[in-house]
Each structure stands twice: as C-alpha cells, then as structure tokens.
Amino acid sequence: MNYNDESVHIGARRRKPHSENISHVIEAMPFPSSWNMRQPPASGEGNLRLVKGVIRFVKLDISVADRLIPEQPEYEPEISPVDFDPADRILKGDQKRNIRSRESSVDLFDLEKRIKADRYINSGRFANDEDRKLASIKYRNKLEEEKIRSDLSRTIKRLKFNLFEITVITFFLVIIDLLPSFGISLPGIFTNKGFTILYPVISLIGLVFTALVSFRDIKSGIKSLFKRNFSTLTAISTAIMAELLHIIYILASAYFTQKPVHGTFASPICLAMLIYTVNRLLHTSRIYRGFTYISKKGIHSEVMLADDSPIAADLRHASGSRSAKIAYVVRTRHLSNYFSNACREDKCSIMMAGVYPAVLIVSVIAAAVAAVRGAFTESDPINVAFSALCAALVTGIPITGLLSLEVPLTRLAGRLRRVGALLTGWNAVDKFGDTDAFAINTTDLFPRGSIRVRKSFAINDMEIEEITSIAASVLIDSGGALAEVFGELIRDDARLRQRVDSITYETELGISAWVKDKKVLVGNRTMMELHRVLIPGGGLARLDEFESMRKNDCFQMLYVAVNNRLMGVYMLEYKAQMAARNALLQFIDNGTGIMIYTCDANINIQLIKSVFGIPPRFISIMENEGSKVYDSVTYKVTKSQDALIATDGSLKALSDAVRAAVVLKDTEGVSMMIQGICFAMGFIFVAGLSCISPYAIDSTEILIMQIVFLLLSTVSILKAL
User: Fold this and answer.
1) How would you write 464-525 as a 3-class SS string?
2) Contact 609/616 with Cβ under 8 angstroms?
3) Distance CA 277, CA 274 (A)
4) Cα–Cα distance between 61 and 70 in angstroms, integer?
5) Helix (H) / strand (E) containing 366
6) Do residues 58 and 49 touch, judged by C-beta distance below 8 A?
C-alpha cells in the first residue's frame, strides 16, 4: 500500500505486534503481489500481519505451507495498517462498547430476572369493593377491552344518576338547616323546635333515600367496618347507620312520650355522601378515560425507575451519585396492571384509615360520658348519647380529603392525555414524584432537523459521495441523532448503504467499524489523533484549519477515516428545537438532572450548554458501563410493563408527566397537612363539647365547619392546578 508523499503520520513510531513474545520476529520479503493476503493465516501459533508494505512473521515455528496456503475462516476483515492500531493499547476495555444495530429485529424479551425489583409495584389499598374488583381486571385482547369499557361506562352513568338524586336531597336538607342561620324564618313544621315530628321525618326520608341510592357503597362500607379495613366509606357508612338509629329513636320518643324534638345530623351526612359520590365519579371517569386512551392510542413507552434493580448501580455511577433515583423509558408491547395502579388510594385516605379506629373509640366514650351527664341533668340519656355519638362520627368523616386530591389528579391526567402521556394514579406519583435524574437518548434532544451538515470536504482520493455512503452506513447502524442526518444525505436509499460489522463506540471519541473489509473511524479530532490517522496536506495543521471554520460551540467537525487515512470532514451545526428546550427546562425546573446516552462524541456537556442554555450541573454524559446497561434495556421491546407513566415517546410528554407527578406529590403533602389539622381541630372540639353539653352542637354548626374545611381543601386544589 503506497502512501501520499504529503501525508503526515501522526505520532509515527515503530509499532510492536500484540504478542508479548517478540524475540523471534523477523521481517520477510516485500509483499508479493501474487499472494492472496485478504485473510491472515490461522493455522498453528503463527501469525501474519501486513505492516507498512512488508510481511511480519511472528514466531519461526510455522511451515512455509502455512504462510503460502492459509486456511480460510468464515470472515475476517482485510488486513491493513490499523491492525496494529496503537489506540487498541491505549484505550482500556471500559472505554469501548459494542453498539447494537437499530436495524435489527426488535425481539420480545423479559426483563423480570434482571430488574425484578423494578417491576414490583405495591398496589396499595383500595377504597371499596368496586375498586378491588377493578384492580383484579386483566385485559389481553380487543374483546376484553370492549367489555371493560362497556362496564365502566355503565358504572359512570349510574354514578351520574346517583349524583343527581343525592344532590337534590342534600340541597333540600341543607337549605332547611342553614336558612334560619341567615335570618330567614321557616314554618315551624320545618324546624327542630317544638313538638312537631315533620322535621325528623323529612330527615329520615332524605337519609334513607340517600342510603338506598348508594346502597352498594354503604354495604361495602359496613363490610369494611367488620373486617377492620377502614376507609372514608367506612366513616360515612358508620355515621349513616348511627344517625338512622338516632332519628328512629327521636320519632319513637316524640310519638310515645310527647317530648320535644331535637336536631338530627342528616344534612351534614348527606353532604359528605354527596362529596364522596362526586369523588367516585371523578375517580371512575379518570380510570375509564385512561384505559380508553391506552387501548385505543396504543402508546408503548413506559417510564421505569432504576431504584432497587441490578441496573441501578451502573446508572448511578454514570450520574455521579450513589443514591440518585434514576428513571428511563422502555418500549413495551403491553401495559399491564393498569387498574391495580389506577385504583390505589391516596395517602390522605390511607392516613385517615389508620386514625379511624381512634375516632370510633373516642365517639363511643363521648356518647357514654354524655349519657352519664344526661342521667344527672334530667335529660334523656339515650338521646344525648346518640347526639354525642353521631356528632363525633359525622365530624370524623375525612371530608377534606375527598376532593382535595382526586380533582387535581383527574385534571392533570386529562391534560397529559392531550400531550401524549398517561399518569395512572398515586402509585406513579409516589414513585416518580421525587426522581433525581432521567436517562434519555440524544435522538430525544436532537430530533429530525436539529442537526444540519453545513460543509463537507473530501480530503483524499475518494469521492465525497462514497465517503458519505460509508459514514452513513456506520452511523445508521449505530443509531443516534446523526443516523437521521446522514440518512437524509443518502436520501434514505438502502442501495447506498454498505455492510457494517463490529461497531464499537469509544468514549468521547467516536465510532469504529468495519465496512466491506475496511476499517472506518467516524469521530472527532481527538479520535483521529489517538488512532494516528494519516492526514494529507499538512497533518495537524490541516486539522487546525478545519477547526477554525467553526463559528461557535454549536458547530462541530466530524472526521471520517478509512484504513487509517483521513478521507472526509463534515461541519455540523446543532440547533435546539423549542419543544426539546422547553422539555429540558421543565426537567430542570423540577430539580431533575439529565443523563445523556450518546454515540456522537461531539455531543458533550459544553455543546448541550451552548445549544440549550442549560447549566452544566444538571447535565451528565453516561459513562461506558452505564451506557451498556441503558442500551441493553431500552433498545428492544419488552413483552409487558406495569402501567405507571406511559408516553408516546416524545420528550415533551415525558417532561409534562414528570412535572405532573412532582406537582401531585407536593399537593398530596399539603393536603395531608390540611386534612390532619382540620380533622384534629374539628373532631376534638366536637367530641369534647358533646361531652360537656350534648345539645350545644347541631347540624348547622357541623355544616358550616364542613364548608370551611372544603374551602381550605379548594385552596390546595387551586394551588396544584
């Protein structure tokens, strides 16, 4: 092989063979043209290499036949000066990684053994029997999807009808109780003063009608009471049953003893049931719309968290933190366990469920104390006991948590669906609401049109079209942002692509590969220097000329070398698309860092800073080990993944979903604080006052207290949205 006289061999020095034993190395005759040297000898321990136009035989104990008639293996690349590439000795093993071809078939494979902890999601608690039934649903085909949607649609229609009926009853009862507080007089038969029994009859009818309309829920709440699986529904059901007994006793007492009629707590209980029905309707509608979205839209990109999985260590090492929570996106055929994740209760409901046994105990104690005081004050002990018990149980309903979390979750989930993302429920919020970093591919940062080739140069005796064909073959097979750029240069013509083998990415340098028995290097200047590529027309000075053409850090030079000779140079311009930039800024606004997987050595922290205007402290480029793991779990399609956060694959959808999870996580904390304070103040006050003066608390005061609590809850909703 003859070299151009003007060529300069970077770092030229006498090369050494790979063999450690070089005591018997001699130089043979110049390379005879009659020898077919496309393949090296493979017999015995002998080795034959072509270096600078001469044949070197390593070890003398091989025969002449072995030298002249070598065995033919299936395939080995053409022998060239790069066989003794000094970069192979300089680069460590962990500075190279093999790149899987993005053109290969995407086989289904199961990650359960490798990331078992990452697939396990605690499905949490469920509010009622309907949610438990929904959580157990498994859908596998179109027929099942249609049946599930039909069942959910019927449930929503039933809840809407129930809501209308309960609203009418509640409005009537609340008006009767609140109007006298605003100075509006009502006929005596509609008040709880005097000896009329019409007021408790109206309360009883309203409460019974509400219970019948919500019979399924009330039944589920009573069952949960005996099973000690407490929830908000348990609190409402217990209060309804206690108040029904209270009203029945009032009517019996007024009829048989002609004693004055005292107030009931039917209106605040019906109001709590109304709010619960609204909450159930929002909850079921969110589940229905989310399921319709994933079944019809067919989104197949699921966000995963490398928290306790085997891949976490390598990704954390790449991020520079040992405790970082790192998320990434995988492609999947099927989103499983959607209902078990979507039906999970929020932390407010779970917190109140843990407190409710104390509510029952304190309510019974308040009733007992009130009965004892009634016996000594010539009051009806049973009536005052019922009044104290029901007042405490009504106040013990966690009314502030019914809407303070379901409303923002439903609203944000609806917004996400419009941008191509799905957030199933509180499992997703708990898991991704405090993510530290997201691992993303450069194709997300630089989609089609973000990178342009501004200039190209043919340096040696190869036409620029052929150089572009070789470079495009390597880059398309390796994937990444440059694959689309060079695919456009060859007009995506498969006939211009050549066979590529042994693609390897060298960290912060570029890609090396074999194309039609030729060693090809595609990378930056450092790669050319490290591999001692021959550069015609001035050597390093020629590279300085190319580098001087860059206008700023958004312009980068890409070099292509074939058989260790520089053949082509491309000047690339990197631009930020507004959608990608806004998505990155939203990640940063959430306090989330970005880990970038790249096969383009020009994409570094400085380039990302220059193009997107992002502080470098939020950016990290994956190290080689982290890149291998990331590539191994994201380049293929998995059979199924748990449906937590799913997207259409766009960076904007991912950033919006993460933002929603962060917002809801904060809202959940605020709501827990508000609900805890309201609950503690209201319950302790009512229970204590009931013990001291049984008739000091009536339905009007509890209604006003509920409305104040709802206003405080609304503040947290508005803050979240």
Assistant:
1) HHHHHHHHHHHHHHHCCHHHHHHHHHCCCCHHHCCCEEEEEEECCCEEEEEECCEEEEEECH
2) yes
3) 5
4) 15
5) helix 347-376
6) yes
CB 214 within 8 A of CB 169: no
Residue 695 CA to residue 150 CA, distance in Å, equals 50
CA distance 25 to 392: 97
Distance CA 420, CA 634 (A): 20
Pair 299, 648: CB distance under 8 Å: yes
Closest CA to 394 of 685, 693, 711: 685
How many C-beta neighbours within 10 Å does residue 185 have?
Answer: 9
- DSSP H or E segment with residue 335: strand 335-336
Q: 48 — phi, psi (to 5°)?
A: -125, 125
CB count within 10 Å of CB 307 equals 16
Helix (H) or strand (E) holding 554: none
User: Phi, psi (5° rounding) for residue 54?
Assistant: -125, 160
Q: Is 150 helix (H, G, I), strand (E, B) or coil?
A: helix
Report yes or no: 629 and 645 within 8 Å, Cβ to Cβ. no
Q: Which residues, at least 6 apart from 330, have a Cβ–Cβ distance to it below 8 Å?
A: 111, 301, 302, 304, 633, 634, 638, 641
Q: How far apart are CA 47 and CA 720, in angstroms?
A: 71
Pairing of strands 437-441, 593-597: parallel
Please report which helix (H) or strand (E) contains residue 108, including its range: strand 108-109
Distance CA 165, CA 209 (A): 9
Which secondary structure element, helix H or strand E, spans residue 62, and what is its range?
Answer: none
Of the candidates 636, 299, 278, 280, which has an alpha carbon nearest to the alpha carbon of residue 479?
636
pTM beyond 0.70: the answer is: yes
* Beta carbons within 10 angstroms of residue 92's beta carbon: 9
Residue with structure tokens 């229970």?
687
**Site of tokens 């129930």:** 162
Beta strands in 193-325 (DSSP E): 301-306
- Angstrom distance (rounded) from CA 567 to CA 561: 5
> Among residues 331, 324, 327, which one has the least CA distance to residue 299?
331
**For residue 634, what is the DSSP state?**
H
The first and second tokens of residue 261, run together, are 């009629």
CA distance 565 to 306: 43
| Other beta carbons less than 10 A from residue 149's beta carbon | 16
In order along the chain (721 residues), what is the average pLDDT of each group of 10 residues? 34 33 34 37 36 36 34 44 58 67 35 36 61 78 81 92 93 83 58 62 90 89 87 90 90 74 83 91 92 82 73 63 78 87 83 86 87 76 85 83 80 91 90 86 87 89 89 88 88 84 84 89 90 82 84 88 91 90 88 85 87 86 77 81 88 90 84 78 80 72 83 71 62
**Pair of tokens at residue 144:** 């099942």
Helix (H, G, I), strand (E, B) or coil at 550: coil
SS3 content of the chain, % helix, strand, coil (to 5): 55, 15, 30
HSE (CB half, 13 Å, CA atoms) of 705?
29
State the Cα angle at 116 between 110 and 117, rounded to 5°. Answer: 150
Distance CA 381, CA 610 (A): 79
- Are the C-beta atoms of residues 13 and 5 closer than 8 Å to each other? no
CA distance 115 to 342: 22
- In the block, tokens 């009329």 appear at 196
- How far apart CA 211 and CA 269 sit, in angstroms, is 10
